DNA sequence: AATGAATGAGAATTCATTCAT
DNA sequence: GATGAATGAATTCTCATTCAT
């Protein structure tokens, strides 16, 4: 988990925006690289040690830059963390979205979403430490992440209902339930153990959902 | 959330055991009261501020005892936290168990369990901060709590299946899914907002489960 | 070193005096035993851990009495330590004196003194930790111990000179030199290693002294 | 004693090595100065108050730097102390060595060594507090200091014996004896009182040694 | 932009000593 | 006399942040 590259080596548009929102966009190519190095290092540091145990000096050491350079790009420890949470949140969404869109119907979409999610998590185990710790470090990000995710699911279900693939009486409650299932299944079968394949897990759940909220 | 009594005013047997496991059981009545005060104060302090922002001096101030008295009963900040996690975990279980046992069938049991859980959480909002933060402070407790809870659910489902109330093909995956649903529904409808009643939430889910894993 | 009884099980006259000088002589038999237990425990505790690392609670735990009981017999941590230093100092003197007195001449006396000293130290290794630490804890005791010891040696040498066994030009300088030799030889061949017997060490030194300050 | 300069104002090679061994060598000139100031201040603080009574804040106050700066250069209170013991130990050796080397024969060398030692000690009275307290704070340094010193003396005596200036039957025992004499004579005539000149003390001892272990 | 030294507020922890029972 | 809980001053160590070079 620790060693893996968490993000591409250059800043994408949305990442630049994200960083800019914390106030300090790099102007030169050299600066861009330093920022990238710091961001990657922060994901590793916080993923390994958590926010409170992780340190700025740990980040800069990993990034191979001087301590002071950190403050060229971020205003505070909280700021990198916030940027990271948003970044991770976006990554999950971006990674899972295509499979969901490609699914033939809504139940299949949920199966694909869960399966992809678990698979993604296996390659990014730090994601739980980072997003969950936001509950304590930056509750706003935490709420935003889950509220947004639940909304997305609710919207999907609604659309599925409109298409007649999902029972009409589903609601936000179901969206939150599905999100909760996914999160814990990701923790259990993605982060903690991989004794069951993502597909097998997703199949079980999809079957339950098909009967539970599907229209047959 | 902060002001509520989290535990009874005397140490029950299991609480005594719990504390003793951290090493320093009181030998006099006076000591018993002080320990109780510290434990209650710790639940409030950590519930309000979280583990890292909470302080020993905050705990002893709330408990109305001297700073040093804390160390008469606990070896460290981590130690109270561990004791607290275990305590909260036990409380949830103890609170929810009777309703589950009293239910006529397995689906009704899950409904009752969720409903009670949300209701309990509304009166103990600090429970999320404490148990979830264990992921970072004392991962072992965290794992233990969720692994134990999932096992308990799995055992219930298995028993239900044996009685023919639950489909035979359910597995641990379903137990983790149900736990995840419950946790997030508790967060959304217990801690964050109470725009929907626990019963209504539980009804929706129970219906889905009845179709999804029930035998009709 | 730790387990050995450092003093007899009852208080001798001088010990009683010594303790009384710290202010709190026991009145009952029960009290006498408790005091004895505390004194023994203190020698072990300080011998093992040193003054600063040693603790009152460590002493009372070893003595098998309650923490508070310590203050029934001593006014402070310093007070036991002072009592102990004086006690150890007296013990060395009392142990070594007979052999010195019994020696046929002054050089033989020095040999006997050194030999006995090393032997004694082997059975009471804590003596160095306690007496030497007095330099930092209670400098007065430390000075007193060494000044007294040096004086005693000087007096012996003078008497020897008067009897014609020792050169007439010896002085305090020689007394301090002899004491220094003895102390370091005790440390090296008594406490640290016992690869050479006390007698062999004493023989070497006696020979040197015979030529160096003896009259042949 | 407290105010005297204990070490030169810049870091010598060996000092740099010594400090580096504790892990944090300065990289800039400014850093070098700060480290020097801390080291000097520590010698004064510990010399005056001893290790346990001395405090980090006392050191940084004397050094005129912020409390935290201490930790830029040392990992702990123990670490400075260790560095200091090693430093003092080296200083004594370096100070005394030239006089020993310049002496015409081995007995003269011992006289010169003792004389210089006492003189040095008069100007660095803190040396005893620091080296002796190592027995309790960092026994390894303590052992090392004395074992090394004794070895050095033994080697000198052996060389003297090879040249026929010293009797052939001298051994480690004599080396330890001589070291012990020197240490206590330094304490008595260097630190405690200066009623006898270093030369006079050294003359007395040299005469004793000439007869005792010399070949005439 | 980069560097790394300096800063100091903040918190956990220890333990001698007191005292009510 | 004995007990052990309570007290709180004192200290070490951490680390985010600032700033001079």
From TrEMBL, chains A, B, C, D:
The keyword Transcription applies. It comes from the Bacteria. PROSITE patterns: HTH_TETR_1, HTH_TETR_2. Residues 32-92 form the HTH tetR-type domain. Keywords: DNA-binding, Transcription, Transcription regulation. SUPFAM superfamilies: Homeodomain-like, Tetracyclin repressor-like, C-terminal domain. Residues 55-74 bind DNA. InterPro entries: DNA-bd_HTH_TetR-type_CS (IPR023772), Homeodomain-like_sf (IPR009057), HTH-type_TetR-like_transc_reg (IPR050109), HTH_TetR (IPR001647), Tet_transcr_reg_TetR-rel_C_sf (IPR036271). This is TetR/AcrR family transcriptional regulator. It comes from Sphingomonas oligophenolica.
């Amino acid at each position: 988990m620790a060693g893996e590259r968490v993000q591409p080596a250059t800043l994408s548009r949305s990442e630049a925006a994200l960083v800019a929102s914390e106030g300090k966009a790099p102007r030169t190519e050299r600066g861009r690289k330093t920022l990238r190095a710091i961001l990657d290092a922060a994901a590793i540091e916080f993923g390994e040690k958590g926010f409170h145990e992780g340190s700025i000096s740990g980040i800069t050491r990993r990034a191979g830059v001087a301590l002071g350079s950190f403050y060229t790009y971020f205003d505070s420890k909280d700021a990198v963390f916030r940027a990271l949470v948003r970044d991770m949140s976006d990554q999950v969404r971006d990674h899972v979205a295509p499979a969901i869109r490609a699914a033939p119907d809504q139940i299949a979409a949920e199966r694909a979403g869960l399966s992809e999610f678990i698979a993604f998590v296996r390659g990014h185990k730090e994601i739980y430490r980072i997003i969950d710790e936001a509950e304590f470090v930056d509750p706003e990000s935490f709420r935003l992440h889950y509220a947004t995710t639940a909304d997305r699911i609710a919207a999907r279900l609604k659309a599925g209902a409109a298409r007649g693939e999902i029972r009409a009486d589903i609601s936000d409650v179901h969206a939150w339930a599905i999100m909760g299932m996914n999160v814990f299944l990701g923790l259990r079968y993605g982060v903690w153990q991989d004794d069951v394949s993502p597909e097998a897990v997703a199949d079980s759940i999809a079957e339950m959902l098909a009967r539970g909220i599907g229209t047959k």
